[in-house]
Amino acid sequence: MDFKIRELRTVAQGRKRLLREREAYSQLMQQGLSNKEACRIIGINEKTGRRWRNGRSADRRQKAAPPINTVVPPSGPSRYLREDERIYIADRLREKATVRAIAIELGRSPSTVSREIRRNGMPLREDARRWAYRPHAAQARADARRPRPKPGKISQNTELRDFIQDRLHLRWSPEQICQALRTQFPQRPEMHVVHETVYQALYVQGRGELRRELARALRTGRVRRKPRRQAQQRQPRFSTPMVMISERPGEAEDRAVPGHWEGDLIIGKDGASAIGTLVERATRYVMLLHLPDGRSAEHVRDTLTATVQTLPAHLVRSLTWDQGAEMAAHGAFTIDTDIPVYFCDPASPWQRGSNENTNGLLRQYFPKGTDLAVHTREHLDAVATELNGRPRKTLGWETPAERLHKLLAA
Predict the structure, then answer these.
(1) Over the chain, what HEC string results?
(2) Is 385:402 a contact under the CB 8 Å cutoff?
(3) In the chain, N or C terminus with fewer CB closer than 10 Å?
(4) How far apart are CA 217 and CA 322, in angstroms?
(5) Rounded distance, CA 379 to CA 385, Å?
(6) Mind listing the pLDDT tens digit for each residue in 38-96?
(7) Residue 355 neighbours by CB distance under 10 Å
(8) Among 200, 242, 244, which Cα is nearest to 327's?
(9) What is the number of other CB atoms lying within 10 angstroms of the CB of residue 117?
């Protein structure tokens, strides 16, 4: 410092421009010192330091002063709150506006505004139970937290690092270690970490917070993380590309034209047996597939091919199925029968609503948790005949068999 600090601070020295002191204060704040410590070193009042740090508004006696920015904030649009948005939040809070109203006006999420007020607000000096939100101070705090990379918590605390390493030698999992830290040091937040912090200290190269060989003490034994492919990078489910339901003809959607079927399997006890179900969308006519030899893709393909070939060609226009592994041979089925297969989106059973409803009706005959392989071909035909003879409200109280007979006669 190229200025002399007054030794006697109880005597006022009048108005004086503290340009060099302000510059030195800025440097000390950039080094991470608190306002109180920086003011003590420079020899100024703490209130002056806070005014320099947070800026001040203009009044009749003085001009406005900008705050000291330790980090230059990024310019242009950003996913982070900007200083003008923080000023707007402060103004609206003084007007007693709600967090949701402020968020709508700013075009932000309510959680973003709520988190901003909670993280960057500060207690009042006269009443620590009350909080105030000052936008310039909030901007300075946010800018100070933004620079990357940040030093790891484990590398900065020797006691914490030793505690974690000792438990890893005992083959504790990171989650067990983190719970033990909270139990053993309940009043010391500097000793609390989450298990992801431990994993990153082990796996992320260049951090050096924990010894790399400790990763072999984990239950997986891996020294690096196993990458998980994103959805667009995963291998196709079937060798033959799926045609999704969005490409299905519009005539199948409105049920105006018969011949569009929905299919699925109902599974027996322990997944060891199954019965295939086919439902026609326009008539709700049901056909059951007998699968005594299992539900592999080849068995389902052969049985499905033999079943649809018993119907007139104009009554089999398409088939809609879910993405179950039993349809892995859908390409061969299409080649054999010239019937396109459309697949539903994942976890979207409503796209095969008629089939799902029929499966629920079939559970009266084939309860869950039972062996479905004991049912013969004749029994399945009898069950299908009984269902097709029930009048349906959606068909004007006609039965599926009657509606199908009209189509065949026409």
Answers:
(1) CCCCCCCCCCCCCCCCCCHHHHHHHHHHHHCCCCHHHHHHHHCCCHHHHHHHHHCECCCCCCCCECCCCCCCCCCCCCCCCCHHHHHHHHHHHHCCCCHHHHHHHHCCCHHHHHHHHHHHCEECCCCCCCEECCHHHHHHHHHHHCCCCCCCHHHHCHHHHHHHHHHHHCCCCHHHHHHHHHHHCCCCHHHCCCHHHHHHHHHCCCCCCCCHHHHHHCCCCCCCCCCCCCHHHCCCCCCCCCEEHHHCCHHHHCCCCCCEEEEEEEECHHHCCEEEEEEECCCCCEEEEECCCCCCHHHHHHHHHHHHCCCCHHHCCEEEECCCHHHCCHHHHHHHHCCCEEECCCCCHHHHHHHHHHHHHHCCCCCCCCCHHHCCHHHHHHHHHHHHCCCEHHHCCECHHHHHHHHHHC
(2) no
(3) C
(4) 42
(5) 10
(6) 888 888 888 888 888 877 766 767 776 777 654 444 445 567 898 889 999 999 998 88
(7) 24
(8) 242
(9) 17
Paired tokens of 25: 């204060």
